[in-house]
Amino acid sequence: MLADAMLRLPAAIIGREPLDTSESEGRPAVIKRKRHSLFARFLIANRVRRSLTSSTRFNELERFKRGVSGTLPQPGEGGVIVAACDDYYYKHFAITLVLSIELLETAQRLHLHLCAPSLQAVTHIEQMSRSLRYVSLTWTVDDCNLAEGLPYKTIYYAASRFLIAPAVIEAAGAPVLCIDIDGIAIQKIWPAYEPVRRDADVLVTRRPEQEKPWRKILAGAIGLNPTPEGVRFAANLSRALASVLDLRPSYHIDQIVFHYLMIATSRRTNLMVKDMPKKFIDFDFANDSVIWTAQAWRGKDSDRYKNARREVLQRFPDLANVSRVVEP
Asked: HSE of 1 in the Cβ direction (CA atoms, 13 Å)?
């Protein structure tokens, strides 16, 4: 299992050059064609179905596991928040997420999955983890071998939190809440989430009114509980994503794979799915929300979001300065 293979970060991974210098030094490239063709949808749906019945036929997930190192959460109290990022998003958003949770002064476990991080990012997260009082921070490093050949590396980065999620559930023996890395905690997350997640295997925002399969669900906040069906779904999701990445898709796959997997799973199991309340994935930045999530760059560039981010960083000048945080 991946949890058994976790090691301290090897020199061969930390300090390596980012996968795509242009994306890491500046804003990530924006995908212009935000859709999957009919043929691509057929291939994706087929891979999802086959990954459920032919797990030994695909080795992409094993490739992912071989490329991951770091430390997973230990068994303990409370659930684990999981997020993932590349070097750019670590510097500009991950630090804000971590520190916004720390500001709430409530014990919270948080796991970050770092995609091809720079030495500066690894050095910073090590220093930051030692400075935190309330957040128990763990992280893994991914050499992103499954991202090779993708037209946009962000396709992989968006899916990677769901690739690592089963290992986190197994290692921690706890539920996980997978969120976008550009989230800002406004209220204490787990005390608000704990009563919501009960009596469910999976929590997700469903949008049945949307026509396109890649819009049927929102992946910005997805809960996976350590129930037998929840664990099985998390494992199937990671295997399906790894298999679909081998198709070299040209657009994000986390939402469309989740949608097709829910359809396929509903025919085989009694998966209990609950709706994720909007307050855990709030694009409107309401005062009573739990997590503010920036929808695309228009959200990140909004004054309300940028001011909130700035206020968090100003409370931790030493940690912000270590990473040389700049405005996105």
From this structure: 12
